[in-house]
Amino acid sequence: MARGQQKVQAQQKAAAKAAGKNKKNTGPHARQVAEKSMQFKCKVCMMMIQSAVTYKEHFESKHPKADLPDELKEV
Questions:
Q1: Cα dihedral: 64, 58, 70, 37 (round 10)
Q2: Residue 42: which of 13, 65, 71 has the closest Cα?
Q3: By three-state DSSP, how is residue 48 classified?
Q4: Where are the annotated segments for Disordered (predicted)?
Q5: Whole-number Å distance between alpha carbons of 21 and 27
Q6: Whose CA is closest to 74, among 54, 51, 45, 52?
Q7: CA 54 to each of CA 13, 26, 39, 68, 70: distance values in angstroms, whole numbers, following the listed order
Q8: Cα 41 to chain center, whole Å?
Q9: Domain locations in the chain?
Q10: Fewer CB within 10 Å, N side or C side of the chain?
């Protein structure tokens, strides 16, 4: 059993550990952050894509028979 200074240090360490644990749980999840950065959604397969160029490449490679969406004709 710890006494005096050791007890105080153990309490401070436990409090810091608990505060760090709670802090991690309150923040946004990585998936939520990633979904916010996604700007385009494929009309055919509903895949979320970040940029227009990547979206156009995806559409041309994965859905060659489908008509190109209006938003990609300008890119």
A1: 160
A2: 71
A3: strand
A4: 1-33
A5: 11
A6: 52
A7: 47, 32, 11, 14, 15
A8: 16
A9: 1-28, 38-75
A10: N
pLDDT of residue 2: 67
- Give dist(CA 41, CA 44) in Å, integer: 9
Distance CA 63, CA 59 (A): 5
Residue 14 identity? A
d(C-alpha 38, C-alpha 56), whole Å: 14
User: Could you identify the residue written with the tokens 């559409």?
Assistant: 59
Instruction: Check if the beta carbon of residue 71 is closer than 8 Å to that of residue 49.
Output: no
